[in-house]
Write a structure and sequence with these properties.
This is Catalase. The protein is α+β, with helices and mostly antiparallel strands and 973 residues long. The protein has a domain at 34-361: Beta Barrel (Catalase HpII,  Chain A, domain 1). The strands form 5 sheets. Strands 1, 2, 3, 4, 5, 6, 7, 8 and 9 form a 9-stranded antiparallel β-sheet that branches. The chain has a two-stranded antiparallel sheet with strand order 10-13.
C-alpha cells in the first residue's frame, strides 16, 4: 500500500558521494584551461563512469590471468617500497608566486611513500615496465595531498578513452606473445592504426628504459594540477643531488629493485626534489593532452620541496607492518584540496576510475561478470521473444517458455528502466581521504541504512532520493486535468465491495507492513505549504474536522530536494530504501534503542506479549503512521519473532554480547521478512505456476530439473544459485526504490470497510467493527481484547478487496490525518501527477507494452468504458493509477501486467543490491543458527511459533496469505 505519513525530520544528515549539488555551483578555478569530452561536465561524467566500470573488468581479467587469488591494483600492483615515515619539506626560498595553501617556505609535513612497478600483474622486476611513485602528504587530520608520478614524462594515452582502450587490450597479458597481440592487434582495432602506433612508441620507449635503481629515477606527474593562484603546473620528483651509491643489483633476482632500496636505506636517506613546471600556453603546455611533453626548455622545472625517505632497516617487523598498511591504502590525485585539484581529461577520469578500482580491490564493491555464452545467446533469443510477444503475451505461453520470456523482459527492463536520479559531481571536486567504514557495520545493518554499499555509504539510506524507472514528466499545467476529484468519484470510490477471493486480509495488512519499511515521502507540516485541488461545480469540502466548507480540497505538499535548474523535482525517502525491517526497528539509532529493553538488552520491549504504548495511546514501534489493527497484528508478531531469535542466539552462543545478539536477530528477522514476501506473499497475489517457479528461483535457485538449469546456464547463469548466493549488483544505477514502484504499490483497494472478529476455537462471532473502529490508537485496545490468535484467525478467513476500479475503501475517502481531513483516493492521484510519474499510456509504453489507440484497448466493461470516456478527453490523459486498476490482469494475477513489469524489475533489485541478502548472507555474519532460521522459516512458522493453537486452521498446501479453514460456529462449553 502506498505511503502517506506525517512530517518527520530524518536524523541522517550524511549525503552520498556523488549526491552533491555540484552541477549548480559556479565553476572552480582552473576550469578555463579545460575542455570537457561530450561538450559538458555531465556528459563527460557519464563517459567516465562507463570507463571506470571497464577498468574494474580489466582488474578481474588480470586476476584470472594471474591464476586467481586476491584482487590486485588495476595498475602498480607490485610494490618495491611502502613507508609511512617520510617527510616533505618546502624550500625556504620558495618563489612567492608558488606560495599557496600548504606550500609555505620551510613548512614540513609527514608523508607516506609507495614505489612500485606499473603493471597490473606482479611480475619480475626485470620485466620491461614503467615504475611509479605515490606520495601522501599529511597536512592535518582534515587535509592531505596525494602526488602520483611515473618514470616517463608523458602518458601513452592523451585522454581517458585511449587509456582504457590500452588497458583492455593488454589485460591479462603475461607472456611476450600475449603482449604483442595486445599491442599490434587489439589496440589498433580499438583506437585505430595511427593512434596505436603513437601509443606503442611511447610505451616501448618507456618500458625499454633500463632501471638500475628506483632511487635514481625521475618521476613525472604527466598530467597537470592547479597550484592555487599560480595556475596549472606539472610536477616531477627527481633524485636530490644524485642517488646514493650502492652495488649494482643482480638483475636475475625477480625482486632486485627492492633489494637495491634495502641496501641504500640501510646506510643513508633517499631524497627526491619536488619540482614544478608552470603552464605557458595551450600549444606548448596543453592541459587536456596527457601524451604531450612539457619540455623543460619551455617550462623549466623549479624545485619547491624535498621528499626525504629516512634510512632504516626494511626487514624489521615494524617496517613490514608499515608496508602492509601502505598496501591497504588507496592513492588518488583527487585526495587533495580544490586549490590543488587535478586538471585535464585523464586526471578528471582518474577520480571515478581510482575509486571504482580501489573499492573493488578492497571488497567494498563487486563485479558480476556475465559469461560470454549468455551475452551471445541472449541476443537472438531476446529478439525472438520480442517478436513473439507482438502476437502472444508472455503469460499465455507454456510455463517454461513464459519463464524464459520473463528472463529476457527483466534484462530489457534493467537496461532501459533504471534511471539514475542522483545529482552527481560534474566536474569532479577534490575530497579528503575517505575514512574506512566502521568495522561494526561490516557485520550489522546500520540504523539509518548507510553503509549497506560500503563504497557508497549513503546509497539507499534515510534521506536518499527516490529513483525512476521512467523519465519523469513534470507538467504543472496538467496537475488538475482532468479534475482529480471527478476522477476519484467516477472511477475509484467503492460502490460495492469487490472481494479478492484467493487471498485473506493478512495479505492486505502485509503489503502495508512492507511499504512502511520501504518508502515514505516527507510532507510539509499541516497548514504550511499545501496542495490545493479545485472542486467540481456544486461541491464543497471540509479540510479540517469541524472546519468550514470550502471550494478547494487542501492537503500538505511533499517536501522536495534541491536540484539544479531545469531538472524535475526530486524527493527524498524518510525511510531507508533497503529491506531492513525498519518498520519494526526504526529509522535511526535513537528510535531503535528506545524500542529495546532497558539497560541495553537485545529484546524489543513488549508488555504481556503486546507492543507498549506511549502517552498518547499510540503503539511504540519503528513506524506507526497510518496505523490500524492489521499493522498492530504484524508488528506484534514480528517483535515477538525478534525476541524468539534473541533467545535462541543466547542459548546457542552463550558468549555473544547483547549488542551482537540484537543486530544478528535484526539481520535474521529482516531476511525472513524478505523471504516471506518473495516466496509467499507475491506468489499468493500473482498466482500462476510460472511466477511461483520464478520467485522461488529468485530465492533458492531453479527447480532440480535439467531443462530448467540448462535454460539458465545458456542465458543467465547467475540465476542458477538464487540471489542470496550471488554478489551485489546495482545494474548500472545507484540503488534506490523508485517513484514508479510506489505508484504500482498503491493497493488501498485491498482494505475492507468492515471486519468480523471471531474466536478461533469455536468459531463464535465476537463483534463486527468498521475500519475506523480499529484505526489509530483504537487498534491496540482491540488487539489486546480480541487476542493475537483470534485476530489472526479473523483476518485469515476474511477476504481483502480486489485491486480494481470502483473499490477504494469508503473509510479512506474521508479520513482524518494530522489535523487534516483528506480523501486518500484523490491524494493518490494528485501525488502521482505532481511527482512526475508519466500518465498511464506513456507509463505502459515505457515498460515495453503497446500503446493504447482507444479506450476499448484498456477495458471491455461497458460501464467503465462510458465513465472513462466521460472523464478523459483521450487515452493519453488516463491517470496511471486509474489505468493500472482498469487493466484486465493475466489469469491468476491480483494486479495488472503493466504494474507487474515494475515489480519484476524491482523485486529482484531489492534483493540483488543488498549486501546482507547476497554476499554477506552467510553463517559468518548471521551465525549458522540465523541462516538456518531463515532457510527453514516461513509465515506459517512465525505464526505457529507464537500462536500454536492455529496449526489446524492454516492452509495445508498454500501460504498463510491464502484463505484459512473456517471453524463452523459451535456452542462453547
Amino acid at each position: 500500500m502506498a505511503e502517506e505519513t506525517a512530517p518527520e525530520r530524518s536524523t541522517a544528515e550524511e549525503t552520498a558521494p556523488g549526491r552533491s549539488t555540484a552541477e549548480a555551483t559556479p565553476p572552480v578555478p582552473g576550469h578555463g584551461y579545460e575542455r570537457y569530452a561530450g561538450g559538458s561536465p555531465e556528459a563527460e561524467r557519464r563517459l567516465f563512469e562507463r570507463l571506470a566500470r571497464e577498468l574494474t573488468r580489466v582488474q578481474a581479467v588480470t586476476r584470472r590471468a594471474a591464476g586467481g587469488g586476491s584482487l590486485a591494483r588495476t595498475f602498480h600492483a607490485k610494490a618495491a617500497l611502502g613507508m609511512e615515515n617520510a617527510r616533505l619539506r618546502f624550500r625556504d626560498d620558495l618563489p612567492a608566486e608558488l606560495r599557496h595553501g600548504f606550500a609555505r617556505p620551510g613548512a614540513e609535513y609527514p608523508a607516506t611513500v609507495r614505489i612500485s612497478n606499473a603493471s597490473g600483474a606482479r611480475q619480475a622486476d626485470g620485466t620491461a615496465d614503467l615504475r611509479g611513485l605515490a606520495v601522501r602528504v599529511v597536512v592535518s587530520g582534515e587535509e592531505s595531498h596525494d602526488l602520483l608520478a611515473t618514470n616517463w614524462p608523458v602518458s601513452h594515452a592523451k585522454d581517458a578513452r585511449e587509456f582504457v582502450a590500452f588497458a583492455r587490450a593488454m589485460a591479462g597479458a603475461r607472456t611476450r606473445l600475449q603482449a604483442a597481440v595486445g599491442l599490434f592487434v587489439k589496440l589498433p582495432l580499438a583506437v585505430g592504426p595511427a593512434t596505436a602506433r603513437r601509443m606503442r612508441r611511447t610505451v616501448l620507449a618507456g618500458t625499454r628504459h633500463t632501471v638500475e635503481s628506483l632511487a635514481a629515477e625521475t618521476y613525472w606527474s604527466r598530467g597537470a594540477i592547479l597550484w592555487g593562484t599560480a595556475g596549472p603546473v606539472r610536477y616531477l620528483l627527481r633524485p636530490a643531488g644524485g642517488a646514493a651509491s650502492a652495488p649494482r643489483p643482480d638483475r636475475r633476482d625477480p625482486n632486485h629493485l627492492r633489494r637495491d632500496l634495502e641496501r641504500r636505506l640501510a646506510t643513508a636517506d633517499i631524497a627526491f626534489d619536488l619540482c614544478v613546471q608552470r603552464y605557458v600556453d595551450e600549444a606548448r603546455t596543453p592541459v587536456e593532452d596527457g601524451s604531450a611533453d612539457w619540455r623543460e626548455a619551455v617550462a623549466p622545472a623549479l624545485p619547491v620541496a624535498r621528499l626525504t625517505i629516512p634510512g632504516q632497516d626494511l626487514d624489521t617487523a615494524e617496517a613490514r607492518a608499515a608496508a602492509l598498511r601502505v598496501e591497504d591504502l588507496t592513492f588518488n590525485p583527487w585526495y587533495t584540496t580544490e586549490d590543488f585539484r587535478p586538471l585535464g581529461n585523464l586526471n578528471r577520469a582518474r577520480k571515478a576510475a581510482y575509486e571504482a578500482s580501489a573499492a573493488h580491490r578492497q571488497g567494498l564493491r563487486f563485479l558480476t561478470e556475465e559469461p560470454l555464452r549468455n551475452r551471445v545467446l541472449s541476443v537472438p533469443a531476446e529478439a525472438a521473444f520480442r517478436l513473439l510477444n507482438r502476437f502472444v503475451p508472455w503469460h499465455r505461453l507454456p510455463t517454461r517458455a513464459s519463464l524464459l520470456n520473463l528472463l529476457f523482459l527483466r534484462k530489457e527492463l534493467r537496461r532501459a528502466n533504471l534511471v539514475d536520479t542522483d545529482v552527481h559531481e560534474a566536474p569532479p571536486r577534490a575530497v579528503p581521504v575517505p575514512r574506512p567504514p566502521d568495522e561494526r557495520l561490516r557485520t550489522a545493518r546500520s540504523y539509518d541504512g548507510t553503509y549497506n554499499d560500503l563504497s557508497a555509504p549513503a546509497m539507499g539510506s534515510v534521506g536518499a532520493a527516490f529513483g525512476r524507472n521512467l523519465a519523469p514528466v513534470h507538467r504543472p499545467d496538467t496537475f488538475d486535468t482532468p479534475n482529480p476529484v471527478t476522477v476519484s468519484r467516477e472511477l475509484l470510490h467503492r460502490e460495492t465491495f469487490l472481494p479478492a477471493t484467493s487471498l485473506n486480509v493478512l495479505a492486505a495488512a502485509w503489503i502495508q507492513f512492507q511499504v512502511h519499511d520501504w518508502v515514505n515521502h516527507r510532507r510539509h507540516p499541516a497548514g504550511t505549504k499545501t496542495v490545493e485541488v479545485p472542486l467540481p461545480s456544486g461541491m464543497s469540502w471540509q479540510n479540517t474536522p469541524g472546519g468550514p466548507a470550502e471550494r478547494v480540497m487542501r492537503f500538505a505538499e511533499n517536501e522536495s530536494l534541491p536540484v539544479p535548474d531545469g531538472r524535475p523535482p526530486l524527493f527524498g525517502n524518510t525511510a531507508s530504501h533497503w529491506w531492513d525491517g525498519s518498520e519494526v526497528y526504526g529509522e535511526n539509532e535513537t528510535t531503535a534503542r528506545s524500542l529495546r529493553t532497558p539497560g541495553g538488552g537485545a529484546d524489543l520491549r513488549l508488555e504481556g506479549g503486546h507492543l507498549p504504548t506511549g502517552r498518547d495511546g499510540a503503539p511504540l514501534s519503528g513506524f506507526t503512521d497510518s496505523w490500524w489493527l492489521g499493522l498492530s497484528v504484524l508488528h506484534t508478531l514480528f517483535a515477538r519473532e525478534h525476541n524468539a531469535v534473541c533467545a535462541a542466539l543466547r542459548q546457542a552462543y552463550p558468549s555473544m554480547g547483547e549488542e551482537s545478539v540484537y543486530h544478528t536477530a535484526r539481520l535474521v528477522v529482516s531476511a525472513l521478512i524478505a523471504k516471506i514476501h518473495t516466496v509467499e506473499w507475491t506468489p499468493a497475489i500473482l498466482a500462476t505456476e510460472a511466477l511461483d517457479i520464478g520467485l522461488h528461483t529468485n530465492w533458492d535457485g531453479p527447480p532440480d530439473k535439467w531443462l530448467d538449469k540448462l535454460g539458465l546456464w545458456l542465458f543467465e547463469s547467475q540465476a542458477l544459485t538464487g540471489i542470496p548466493a550471488t554478489l551485489p549488483d546495482h545494474h548500472g544505477a545507484p540503488y534506490s526504490l523508485t517513484e514508479d514502484f510506489i505508484t504500482v504499490y498503491r493497493m488501498h483497494p485491498l482494505i475492507p470497510d468492515d471486519f468480523e472478529l471471531r474466536e478461533h476455537h469455536f468459531g463464535q462471532r465476537l463483534e463486527t467493527v468498521g475500519f475506523l473502529d480499529i484505526n489509530g490508537t483504537a487498534a491496540e485496545g482491540v488487539l489486546r481484547k480480541t487476542g493475537l490468535a483470534n485476530t489472526l484467525y479473523s483476518f485469515g478467513i476474511a477476504h481483502p478487496g480486489a485491486i480494481t476500479l470502483h473499490n477504494f475503501p469508503r473509510a479512506l475517502t474521508r479520513f482524518e490525518r494530522d489535523g487534516e481531513l483528506i480523501d486518500l483516493s484523490v491524494v493518490d492521484l494528485v501525488r502521482t501527477r505532481r511527482r512526475g510519474v508519466p500518465r498511464y499510456d506513456d507509463f505502459r509504453a515505457g515498460l515495453h507494452r503497446p500503446r493504447l489507440r482507444r479506450f476499448e484497448d484498456l477495458t471491455e466493461n461497458p460501464e467503465t468504458l462510458a465513465r472513462l470516456k466521460d472523464v478523459y478527453a483521450s487515452v493519453d490523459e488516463i491517470d496511471t493509477v486509474v489505468g493500472l486498476l482498469a487493466e484486465n490482469p493475466p489469469t491468476g494475477f491480483g494486479f495488472s501486467d503493466t504494474a507487474f513489469r515494475v515489480f519484476i524489475l524491482m523485486a529482484t533489485r531489492r534483493l540483488q543490491s543488498d549486501r546482507f541478502l547476497t554476499v554477506d548472507f552467510r553463517p559468518e555474519i548471521y551465525t549458522p543458527l540465523g541462516i538456518d532460521w531463515v532457510r527453514k522459516g516461513s509465515m506459517n512458522t512465525v505464526i505457529l511459533r507464537h500462536c500454536p493453537d492455529l496449526a489446524a486452521l492454516l492452509p495445508r498446501t498454500a501460504t498463510a496469505f491464502a484463505p484459512w479453514r473456517r471453524v463452523p460456529p459451535q456452542p462453547t462449553p
